[in-house]
Amino acid sequence: MKETVSINILGQTIQLRSDTSTAETLQVAEFVKKTIDDLGRDRTVDTINLAIMALMNVSGAYLRLQNEVAEEGRQVEEGLQRCLDRIDAA
After folding, report:
1. What is the C-alpha separation between 62 and 53, in angstroms, rounded?
2. Residue-wise DSSP of the chain
3. What is the pTM of this model?
4. Using CA atoms, how far apart are residues 52 and 48, in angstroms rounded to an integer?
5. Of 9-18, 38-47, 70-79, where does mean pLDDT reach its minimum?
């Protein structure tokens, strides 16, 4: 069931409808706010540039994690294949 949650980021109040829980949506909103605050702390940047910088940072972190998970998956597959090869050889 979709829940509506009101969040405020960069002075903008947004009504979000999501299948995720209210708690998860608020957790994501807090993460976004913290990311933006960290970026804007020592800079004078307009809000759109600040939002783009935050999105770039979060996207970069996401892609790095995605690549790490894919690499770990390949390593697990290779390890399993080595085990299967040993079993076949025995």
Report:
1. 14
2. --EEEEEEETTEEEEEEESS-HHHHHHHHHHHHHHHHHHHTT----HHHHHHHHHHHHHHHHHHHHHHHHHHHHHHHHHHHHHHHHHHH-
3. 0.69
4. 6
5. 38-47
- Greatest CA separation found in the chain? 67
Position of tokens 């390949």? Answer: 74
- Tell me if 22 sits within 8 A of 5, measured CB to CB: yes
Query: Residue 57 contacts by C-beta under 8 Å, 6 or more apart in sequence?
Result: 35, 39
Tokens of 30: 């807090």
Q: Confidence band (pLDDT; 50, 70, 90) for 41?
A: confident
**Tokens of residue 36, six digits:** 């933006």
Assigned token pair, 44: 């004078």
C-alpha 12/C-alpha 56 separation (Å) is 20
Residue 16 is encoded by which pair of tokens? 């979000």
